[in-house]
């Protein structure tokens, strides 16, 4: 029944997440060619179901679950990133699997507290934060004469 299908889906999603984390998230790539290296990618095909990850999420879940309520339960996370479950790729099953197996954590006081904490750390390190300023440029490597990494359209920074 649906219970066995759910456990199989969860195991498959979790396995894909582990491969993705190991092979993409936890790795640094020096170039697009490094990222797309077939010698690295081809062995992964035996570890994940590519169609499950790239096919339409709603349709892929439909292969396991007939009840649309179960499918809705397992793909509402697509909405987190502004996608429709009917068009989102199945890779978003990894979000649901993560929530189920790892839980969902929220900062005490809400995400506003994260922003406030980062700002406090930056200010303590001597950073001046200007909000509402139009960004004129972003410099990836600051000039030797400057300690900044960008500037506003008013010439500040």
Describe the structure.
One of its GO terms (molecular function) is oxidoreductase activity. InterPro entries: Amino_oxidase (IPR002937), FAD/NAD-bd_sf (IPR036188). Residues 39-141 form the Amine oxidase domain. This protein has 157 residues and is mainly α. It folds into two domains: 2-102; 111-152, no CATH class. Helices cover 48% and strands 4% of the residues. It is built from eight helices and two strands. It starts with a helix and ends in a 5-residue tail after the last strand.
DSSP strand tally: 2
What is the CA-based Rg, rounded?
22 Å
Question: How many domains is the backbone divided into?
Answer: 2
Shape: extended
Q: In order across it, which strands form the biggest sheet?
A: 1-2
**Termini Cα gap:** 62 Å
Total of DSSP H or I helical runs spanning 4+ residues: 8
Uncertain runs: none
Q: What is the structural class?
A: mainly alpha
- SSE string, helix = H, strand = E? HHHHHHHHEE
Can I get a quick summary?
With 157 residues, this protein is mainly α.
Provide the descriptors you would attach to this structure in a database record.
157 residues, 8 helices, 2 domains, two-stranded antiparallel ribbon, mainly alpha
């Amino acid at each position: 029944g649906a219970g066995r299908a759910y456990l199989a889906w969860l195991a498959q999603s979790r396995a894909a997440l582990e491969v993705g984390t190991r092979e993409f998230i936890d790795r640094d790539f020096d170039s697009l060619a490094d990222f797309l290296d077939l010698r690295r990618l081809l062995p992964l095909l035996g570890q994940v179901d590519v169609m499950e990850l790239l096919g339409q999420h709603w349709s892929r879940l439909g292969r396991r679950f007939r009840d649309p309520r179960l499918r809705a339960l397992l793909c509402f996370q697509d909405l987190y990133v502004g996608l429709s479950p009917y068009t989102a790729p199945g890779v978003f099953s990894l979000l649901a699997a993560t929530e189920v197996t790892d839980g969902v954590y929220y900062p005490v006081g809400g995400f506003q507290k994260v922003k406030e904490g980062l700002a406090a750390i930056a200010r303590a390190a001597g950073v001046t934060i200007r909000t509402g300023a139009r960004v004129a440029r972003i410099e990836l490597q600051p000039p030797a004469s400057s300690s900044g990494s960008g500037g506003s359209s008013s010439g500040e920074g």
